[in-house]
TrEMBL record:
<protein>
    <recommendedName>
        <fullName>Methyltransferase domain-containing protein</fullName>
    </recommendedName>
</protein>
<dbReference type="Pfam" id="PF13489">
    <property type="entry name" value="Methyltransf_23"/>
</dbReference>
<dbReference type="InterPro" id="IPR029063">
    <property type="entry name" value="SAM-dependent_MTases_sf"/>
</dbReference>
């Protein structure tokens, strides 16, 4: 497939631009892909919680973006009476179910008092570039949960890898180079590059949870898989994978690690290589959840 075939794929993502200290950062929303990868909107035992007991369940999505996860959730689980989406900037659709509420709220700023101990389930998904201190985020979110409530964190690792070789460099040199530069640039700006792998430990150390579980799944970066289901997920991922360089261009350039023309060359090589899919690359996505004591 060539770059010109891209329009045929359309985009499964909603995109928006943020102003950051480093300039505009386009964020991509890949929730539907990861929901498919994890076979559902929620880990199984949390699903059961929403289906059993009282029919007055309250759920919060932190950094809710488009709000699509919450809207899908209330459609699937009728026991949810209150679904609260918070974000620093609101981009939810005009029309949404009456039990969904969107609030402009910085998760790092004080919460309204009546939110304390209010929620059965809280999710925070793909906040890695916005949150530098995950242990402190976890402590803040725990205060909003009822005893026995669940906190779910979904985050990607920050480097992709090949499923056919231990050396990404050998089979996908452009992806390896692009990954390295992005990694170094994000690290320079204080992003917790190992957040996904560290969060289970942060949760266990906080001593607020009865139980902490984790699962990691490999998201294919393009349609290279022989497994039809993974191939579909990979196909839907192509626009996201290809848009990724633009999401971090300004951050990488601000880091001073490469010049603009070097960046454009690396980007072009990375795109060509991703479309060919020869390295069979994946990005591990982690879902970690804990049950509050
Ligand atoms: C990559 S998007 C993910 C959106 C959504 N969770 C999803 O999975 O599609 C990150 C979201 O977190 C929001 N965000 C970043 N920092 C935040 C903060 N301090 N408080 C609230 N929301 C924040 C951003 O505005 C953005 O909508």
């Amino acid at each position: 497939m060539s770059t010109s075939d891209l329009s045929k794929h359309g985009s499964s993502s909603s995109k928006r631009t943020y102003n950051t200290d480093q300039g505009d950062l386009i964020m991509i929303f890949i929730y539907r892909n990861t929901a498919d990868l994890f076979d559902g909107l929620l880990p199984r035992d949390i699903e059961l919680t929403l289906q059993s007991g009282s029919s007055d369940k309250r759920v919060m999505d932190v950094g809710c973006g488009t709000g699509k996860w919450l809207i899908d959730l209330v459609e699937k689980y009728p026991n949810i009476t209150e679904a609260s989406g918070i974000d620093i900037t609101l981009i939810h659709p005009q029309q949404f179910p009456s039990n969904v509420k969107f609030t402009r709220q910085d998760v790092l700023k004080p919460f309204p008092e009546d939110w304390i101990g209010r929620f059965d389930v809280i999710q925070a998904r793909f906040l890695i570039t916005g949150i530098k201190n995950f242990p402190s985020l976890l402590e803040r979110l725990i205060t909003l949960l009822k005893p026995g409530g669940y906190l779910i964190i979904v985050e990607p690792e920050t480097k992709s890898h090949s499923t056919i070789s231990d050396s990404l460099e050998e089979v996908s040199p452009a992806s390896a180079k692009f990954g390295d530069i992005s990694y170094q640039a994000m690290k320079k700006f204080g992003i917790d590059m190992d957040a996904a792998k560290n969060i289970p430990n942060y949760m266990r150390k906080s001593d607020s949870f009865d139980r902490v579980e984790q699962v990691s799944k490999d998201l294919p970066m393009s349609d290279w898989s022989d497994d039809p289901r993974l191939n579909e997920i990979g196909k839907a991922q192509i626009p996201n994978a290809l848009a990724y360089p633009d999401t971090i261009r300004k951050l990488v350039l601000a880091s001073g690690l490469v010049s603009q023309s070097e960046f454009e060359t690396i980007k072009k090589d990375y795109i060509d290589e991703t479309l060919k899919g020869e390295g069979k690359t994946v990005l591990p996505i982690w879902t970690i959840w804990g049950k509050k004591k």
